[in-house]
Amino acid sequence: MYSKSLRSLTGQNLRSVLAIGFFLFICWIIFTADTGQVPPQLQQIRKLPYGDKVGHFTLYGMLAFLVNLALNHKRVRIFSLPVLSGALLVGIFAIVEEFTQIAFATRNFELMDMLCDLLGITVFSYLSLQLAAWLQGLRSKVN
Fold this sequence. Notes:
By secondary structure, this protein is mainly α. It is built from six helices and two strands. Strands 1-2 form a two-stranded antiparallel ribbon. The longest helix is centred in the last third of the chain and has 32 residues, at about 110-140. The chain is elongated, with a radius of gyration of 17 Å.
């Protein structure tokens, strides 16, 4: 039964589960930071030079990567420019989350954190497009 349910987690379903799981992981990190209960392992990252900034870049970038894959790189037009829906959703989430930090004594609103979030979203969205193109090339060689 377990292997049967695992086999059904392929393709689109797996991409969605990974994106949702990673989103929940980020929500857990945000919750622990908001409540002042950050685990010691995550506190160590802040002690590294630019560790917090690298964390913002990587976490939001990976989330955008996974959401873009889950949404099959769907695009919306903003001022006639095609924008990846996943990148847009994650970007809005990152900006809103950064502004909510103003309400918590345990958090600090930092424009540089937001910039790192958005830069990570941009870079990892580009990488997700490159992966999709590479996979498409592999599929066309097989067929």
